[in-house]
Amino acid sequence: MFDDKVKKFLLLLARTSVESHLNNKKISEMNFNNIPSILKKKLPLFVTIYKGKFIKGSMGFFPVITLPIYKAVQEAAILAATRDPRYPSIRSYELSEIIFEISIIKSFFPLNSYREYKKEYGIFLKYEDQIGIILPQIAKRYNWQEEGILKEACLKANLPPEFYKSKNVSLTALEVESFSEYGFEKQIEE
């Protein structure tokens, strides 16, 4: 979907947006008139921040997205760094130690049953107002199988681990393209 030039641009945009925010600088209003048209599309996405092998924040927009990709990356990166309630906010002195990862949701489709779920997809689990999302690269990193992924999504939604089997749960499979500074300039420690 994205070539390396566009991936590097989005990763740099995430990093500079967080850096500007943490240093109380106005996020520069770059000239986005000449960017590739694909970055003006409105696609669901997440930005995840790592320090070493540990997640330090992850926020995004799914299923509803009202911002073009380039704006959504800026917003999600700042939210991941400063507003993810599961983790302490990133401090400016940590910027040299963190790695950004961007996950674009290329497509998604509802599942009729948990038995249809395959681990190469991410999962969006919803029950009433409770939501649990597991991106496929996270499951791969921890070597989770289908049942483990579904249990983790339940736990993220503050539901019992087996709740994914309930008829009242909505399950959506996510096809994701993810890329990170790992592989470009930085490395996520395994």
Task: Report a brief summary of the structure.
This protein is α+β, with helices and mostly antiparallel strands and 190 residues long.
Give the name of the CATH architecture of the largest domain: 2-Layer Sandwich
Give me the secondary-structure category.
Answer: alpha+beta
Residues in helices, as a percent range: 25-40%
* Average residue-wise pLDDT: 92
Name the CATH superfamily classification of the largest domain. Hypothetical protein ph0010, domain 1
Strand tally: 6
> What profile does the largest beta sheet have?
6 strands, antiparallel
CATH class type of the largest domain: Alpha Beta
For the terminal residues, how far apart are their CA atoms? 26 Å
Kindly report the spatial arrangement of strands forming the biggest sheet. Answer: 2-1-3-6-4-5
**Tally of separate helices:** 4
What's the overall geometry? globular
Radius of gyration based on Cα positions: 17 Å
Proportion of beta-strand residues: 25-35%
What fold name stands as the CATH topology of the largest domain? Glycoprotein, Type 4 Pilin
N to C succession of SSEs: HEEHEEEHHE
pLDDT below 50 for ≥5 consecutive residues: which ranges? none
Which oligomeric form is depicted? Answer: single chain
When the domains are counted, the total is 2
